[in-house]
């Protein structure tokens, strides 16, 4: 009897995915368990969601983050460019 339990346990387990990849057993946004017989809504190829709403919310969050990152990069570039014009050449003494 113990042997059949061990075998069914072994075969019911799915292979583990790559490290850092989302598991396919829960929604990546709300963590709701995903049933094997229900639809799974994917985003970016490997991220599962329980509904179109959760997937859409993640897409919206990603868009907001991308806009913020682009704005930070734009500000950083502008600051770097303005500092470049203000830099004075430094004199470095060289020992003989």
Automatic annotation (TrEMBL):
Upper lineage: Eukaryota, Viridiplantae, Streptophyta, Embryophyta, Tracheophyta
A GO molecular function held by the record: metal ion binding
- The segments annotated as FLZ-type zinc fingers are 22-66
**PANTHER family (UniProt xref):** FCS-LIKE ZINC FINGER 1-RELATED, GENOME ASSEMBLY, CHROMOSOME: II
Q: Which domain of life is it from?
A: Eukaryota
Q: Which residues form the FLZ-type domain?
A: 22-66
Question: What UniProt keywords are attached to this protein's entry?
Answer: Metal-binding
Q: Name one Pfam family in it.
A: zf-FLZ
What is the protein named? Answer: FLZ-type domain-containing protein
Family per similarity comment:
Belongs to the FLZ family.
């Amino acid at each position: 009897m113990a042997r059949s339990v061990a075998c069914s346990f072994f075969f019911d387990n799915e292979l583990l995915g790559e490290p850092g990849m989302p598991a396919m057993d829960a929604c990546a946004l709300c963590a709701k368990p995903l049933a094997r017989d229900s639809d799974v809504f994917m985003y970016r190829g490997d991220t599962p969601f329980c509904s179109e709403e959760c997937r859409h919310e993640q897409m919206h969050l990603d868009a907001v983050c991308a806009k913020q990152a682009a704005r930070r990069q734009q500000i950083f570039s502008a600051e770097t460019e303005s500092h470049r014009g203000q830099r004075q050449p430094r004199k470095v003494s060289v020992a003989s």
